[in-house]
């Protein structure tokens, strides 16, 4: 069953309402299938930068493992108290913001665009947490776990959820699915229908000039044909940021972005550490497993 919380719908409305014209050009190009031409880039330049978060990062969302199957296996990553934590906003000690998609807008010709997204499931976690996608192109899903998952993919627009595909994944299996966004849609999201804490986000891109920020919020996009471009920064819980760059032959432009933590609102029900079925958890389920002990 495809479903999404009211909180996610409201967040999406905020994102769509703040999208600049430059972003619409990029995303509509992906949705309408306008051709990108691959050429040999000579004298290409680059753009580098860093994305930072102003203000303290929001807390992790809390998912109670007792409400999902495979608790013994999935608790290998937990807070040691029967919960899986999902940190939507990850920030380094120096304020660098991870998992922000940086995309150069309106590049019609350039380096080969041979990108195929790949989702991996390991220890009841989908990675990468943020992944650009290509409309009308395949993506690979790999389940490395000894338990089954049900990968649901969908897009959201306004107050509505639209299913894209539903792919049951038996233990240790691989599947290929095609990304087919509805007209005017840009946001891609996956969630396991069996384990609701398994989630990921994506956005459509129309050319290969994109990057996802690393653990310190840094990125590099190379082999850009010389010219002037708009560039955007997208995080799934905050308003889109936009900039303008001039790329010279063999040169390197710099474009930094800042996000505001005050834009993120985590609903109270996702912050509740206790639950009515707590006595159902035996002590064995609370034993810290070797994969990862999560901290709030």
What is the gist of this entry?
With 296 residues, this protein is mainly β. 38% of the residues are buried.
Plain-language structure description:
This protein has three helices and 22 strands. It is mainly beta and 296 residues long. The chain has a single domain (6-279), classed as Immunoglobulin-like (Sandwich), CATH 2.60.40. The strands form seven sheets. Strands 2, 17, 20 and 21 form a four-stranded mixed β-sheet that branches. A four-stranded antiparallel β-sheet has the order 16-6-18-19, covered by helices on one side. The protein has a four-stranded mixed β-sheet with strand order 9-8-10-13, with no helix packed on it. The longest helix has 13 residues, at 6-18. The relative contact order is 0.28.
State the main characteristics:
globular, 3 helices, Immunoglobulin-like, four-stranded antiparallel β-sheet, 10% helix, 296 residues
How does the SSE layout of this entry go?
Elements: H1 6-18, H2 21-32, E1 37-38, E2 45-54, E3 61-64, H3 71-74, E4 77-78, E5 83-86, E6 101-105, E7 109-110, E8 118-121, E9 126-127, E10 138-143, E11 149-157, E12 160-169, E13 173-178, E14 187-192, E15 199-203, E16 210-212, E17 218-224, E18 227-234, E19 241-247, E20 252-254, E21 257-260, E22 292-293
Parallel strand pairs: 1-7, 2-20, 2-21, 4-22, 8-10
Antiparallel strand pairs: 2-17, 3-5, 6-16, 6-18, 8-9, 10-13, 11-12, 11-14, 14-15, 18-19
């Amino acid at each position: 069953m495809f479903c999404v919380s009211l909180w996610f719908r409201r967040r999406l409305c905020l994102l769509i309402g703040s999208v600049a014209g430059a972003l619409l050009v990029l995303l509509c190009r992906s949705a309408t299938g306008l051709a990108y031409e691959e050429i040999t880039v000579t004298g290409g330049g680059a753009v580098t930068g860093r994305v930072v978060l102003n203000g303290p990062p929001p807390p992790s969302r809390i998912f109670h493992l007792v409400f999902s199957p495979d608790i013994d296996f999935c608790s290998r990553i937990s807070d040691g108290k029967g919960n899986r934590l999902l940190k939507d906003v990850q920030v380094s000690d120096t304020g660098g913001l991870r998992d922000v998609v940086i995309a150069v807008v309106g590049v019609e010709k350039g380096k080969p665009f041979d990108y195929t997204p790949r989702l991996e499931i390991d220890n009841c976690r989908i990675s990468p947490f943020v992944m650009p996608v290509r409309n009308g192109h395949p993506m690979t899903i790999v389940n490395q776990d000894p338990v089954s998952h049900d990968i649901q993919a969908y897009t959201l627009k306004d107050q509505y959820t639209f299913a894209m595909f539903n792919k049951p994944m038996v233990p240790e299996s691989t599947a290929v699915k095609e990304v087919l966004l509805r007209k005017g849609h840009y946001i891609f999201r996956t969630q396991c229908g069996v384990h609701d804490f398994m989630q990921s986000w994506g956005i459509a891109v129309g050319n290969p000039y994109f990057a996802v920020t690393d653990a310190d919020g840094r990125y590099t996009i190379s082999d850009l044909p010389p010219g002037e471009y708009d560039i955007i920064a997208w995080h799934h819980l905050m308003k889109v940021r936009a900039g303008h760059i001039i790329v010279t032959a063999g040169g390197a432009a710099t474009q930094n972005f800042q996000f505001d933590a005050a834009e993120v609102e985590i609903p109270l029900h996702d912050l509740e550490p206790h639950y009515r079925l707590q006595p159902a958890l035996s002590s064995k389920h609370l034993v810290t497993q070797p994969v990862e002990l999560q901290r709030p």
